[in-house]
Write a structure and sequence with these properties.
The strands form 4 sheets. Strands 13-12-14-15-16-20-17 form a 7-stranded parallel sheet, with helices on both faces. It has a 6-stranded antiparallel sheet with strand order 2-1-6-5-4-3, covered by helices on one side. By secondary structure, it is an alpha/beta fold. The chain folds into 3 domains: 174 residues, no CATH class; 280 residues, Rossmann fold; 51 residues, no CATH class. The longest helix is centred in the middle third of the chain and has 31 residues. The radius of gyration is 33 Å and the shape is elongated. It contains 17 helices and 20 strands.
Length: 665
């Protein structure tokens, strides 16, 4: 082998985020950047050639080779990400030498050694230490000098041993004893770049929607999504590395583009405890904006347009995504859940107002009225009917000339709510539990395949959704989300539901007679609940012993039926409530068929098609109140949540692949 110019595959490009260390691009990216860089120099007559930006990092960023900068494709970022061309590298860390020095060393190396033979064996190196060898060539740099002891033994020495600045620089670069023994340099990266070293195709995109308080820190959702993406990458590597597909997370930053009230609210805010007030203004205030008829539409439109813009942009850059049946899920946080829900379902306050008017009319008809009153009312009724008909005809005419596009340009596969107040909003809009266990009661499956509500037990903004569908679910604890490192966890759809124990102390032994008449979750009236996890010691004990806390074994009742027949006695597994509990006992519970009781319960056989409420396991050490402050934002970097999200997304993709394989057979 002779010394020649570095090949494109030997050069490695790097990027640096948040002023941290240089990170190498993967081979596929580096090679394409290098080819663009080489095309840039070949413009002829000193004119730089126009080079297309290079798409890197799974398509999330682009590199402008001319300015040596990288920037995100789907969101705005003020801080530019510098990129750098690595040719000479530091031994051990494989960090690149700064480009200027690197270019000088490379130029000198080629001038002196081009065409010369590289050493085949390393015998010489072992027999004679470098210190004793004479340098056959040397190059002086501003603060360092480089000695060539042979063609492929190159060392960098620091000259400015006395200069403090130089010392810190050399330490930062990772030189061990730069002053005395020198640092070995390598020409060309540790591994060659190949086009095969490329990211898998994206089969599923997840839009991450922020909630309240975004005004406080506009770049926050971008950082949060990056945390979630990095966490999901770790989980993908550990659990899903055998799959050739990939889930991509995109931040939806809808708040900063809105003007809303300008700075009116700021101007009326008193000065005392200003920090706390500002925090409330930028968090609680968004809820007030959303309940204000003046700004509600602006918030809805802001999010809707941003979701559609991102989807169109993604599809235009990945034309095969739709062809191959790519899926879309949404992860929303806090108030973002409510706005996303309203966009998907098309709910608005006007509709609620019309329903109330209609109800009033019906109630009026039942009252006793004088002849005159009734005649006027009938006239009003006919006029309203006529008005409605005219409006409908007008609407039909409009619709025939312009077809109204769907609100969102994609179907939502999964809607994951995190720390969500959606249940409170729905309850205040008059949604009450029904008699069917279908998600359609609050979110039709035609709009969104699966609704999942994730929350931390101490998150003060989060509420449960299941009791809005079936009332008795307020007595069934939410499904516990598996810890990330649980070995062979039970699939969520196989988990048995567990009853929220109403007694004060879950570990106390039951009275003999009360044991025989233990109420079942489906038949008991909604009790004053002991809030799950009220005693942290019980949870602590239970979780230390590896037993899931109070809600042991819960979940989608796909395979387990609570009450197959209402007339026969049924067995219900009650998970052991504390570590001292005996082995799981199957308690026989008599459940006579119930009429429509005043407590609002229907037939005890009714249960949810799929579980919706999923609860993170509480930490053992955190203080309950401190955790209430931090838990609302603790979702982004949780490995447990990342695994939970990917489990549901990959499971669906897998099921569909299996189905299509069966079809082809």
């Amino acid at each position: 082998e002779v010394v020649r110019e570095l090949g494109a595959e030997e050069v490695r490009w790097f990027y640096r985020e948040d002023r941290k260390t240089w990170k190498p691009f993967i081979g596929y990216d580096s090679l394409r950047i290098e080819l663009a860089f080489r095309a840039l120099g070949g413009g002829g007559a000193g004119e730089p050639a126009a080079v297309e930006p290079v798409c890197v990092r799974s398509g999330l960023y682009e590199v402008d080779v001319a300015s040596a900068e990288s920037y995100p494709v789907y969101w705005n970022q003020t801080e530019k990400i510098p990129v750098m061309r690595g040719q000479w590298f530091i031994d051990g860390t494989w960090q690149p030498l700064e480009e200027e020095e690197s270019n000088l060393i490379e130029q000198e190396h080629l001038n002196r050694f081009k065409g010369q033979q590289l050493q085949e064996s390393f015998d010489m190196e072992i027999s004679k230490p470098v210190d004793g060898k004479e340098a056959i060539h040397s190059l002086k740099l501003s603060r360092n000098h480089v000695d060539w002891h042979s063609v492929d033994e190159v060392y960098l020495y620091s000259d400015a041993t006395t200069s403090k600045i130089a010392r810190t620089v050399t330490q930062k670069l990772g030189f061990s004893k730069a002053s005395s023994s020198g640092t070995r340099l390598h020409r060309g990266y540790v591994e060659e770049a190949t086009l095969e070293d490329k990211p898998p195709q994206t089969s599923h995109i997840v839009f991450v929607v922020h909630g309240i308080g975004q005004k406080m820190d506009q770049g926050r959702i971008i950082k949060n999504t990056a945390m979630m993406r990095d966490t999901a990458r770790k989980v993908e590597e550990k659990y899903f590395s055998n799959l050739a597909t990939h889930v991509e997370f995109l931040p939806v930053e809808w708040r900063s583009k809105l003007t809303l009230d300008g700075d009116t609210v700021d101007s009326i805010t008193p000065d005392k405890v200003r920090g706390l007030r500002d925090m409330l203004n930028s968090s609680a205030m968004d809820i007030m904006y959303y309940t204000s008829p003046l700004y509600r539409d602006e918030l809805v439109k802001g999010l809707q347009q941003e979701l559609n813009r991102l989807y169109s942009l993604f599809c235009s850059r990945n034309p095969e995504f739709e062809e191959k049946g790519g899926k879309v899920s949404i992860v929303s946080h806090s108030l973002g859940c409510v706005i996303t829900y309203d966009i998907m379902t098309g709910w608005n306050p006007v509709r609620l107002y019309e329903q109330l008017l209609q109800k009033e009319e019906e109630e009026l008809e039942e009252h006793w009225m004088s002849y005159e009153e009734r005649r006027l009312l009938e006239e009003l009724y006919i006029t309203k009917q006529r008005l409605r008909e005219i409006e409908e005809r007008l609407h039909e005419l409009k619709a025939s000339t312009i077809s109204k596009p769907p609100v969102l340009k994609f179907k939502v596969e999964n809607f994951f709510c995190m720390g969500s107040p959606l249940a409170v909003f729905l309850a205040l809009r008059g949604i009450r539990p029904g008699s069917s266990g279908s998600q359609d009661h609050i979110l039709p499956r035609t709009i969104c395949n699966r609704l999942l509500n994730i929350f931390h037990p101490t998150d003060p903004v989060a509420y449960r959704l299941e009791p809005l569908i079936l009332k008795h679910y307020s007595n069934i604890s939410p499904v516990q989300i598996h810890w990330y490192n649980t070995a062979n966890p039970l699939p969520y759809e196989h988990m048995k539901p567990s009853f929220l124990n109403p007694s004060k102390e879950p570990t106390s032994a039951p009275e003999p007679e009360s044991a025989s008449a233990a109420p079942s979750p489906t038949t008991s009236p909604v009790m004053v609940r002991r809030h799950y996890g009220e005693s942290i010691t019980n949870i602590g004990k239970a979780s230390i012993l590896g037993a899931a806390s109070i809600g042991k074994g819960l979940g989608g009742m796909l395979f387990s039926r609570f009450g197959r027949s209402s007339a026969t006695p049924q067995t219900m597994e009650t998970g052991k409530d504390g570590p001292e509990g005996d082995e799981k006992k199957a308690t026989t519970v008599g459940t006579p068929p119930l009429p429509h009781s005043s407590s609002g319960f229907l037939e005890p056989t009714v249960e949810l098609e799929h579980r919706i409420d999923f609860e993170l396991r509480e930490g053992l050490v955190e203080s309950r109140y401190w955790s209430a402050v931090t838990s609302h934002t603790a979702y982004w970097s949780s490995l447990d949540i990342a695994l939970f999200l990917l489990t549901f997304m990959y499971k669906q993709d897998q099921e569909e692949t299996d189905k299509s394989n069966l079809d082809t057979v």
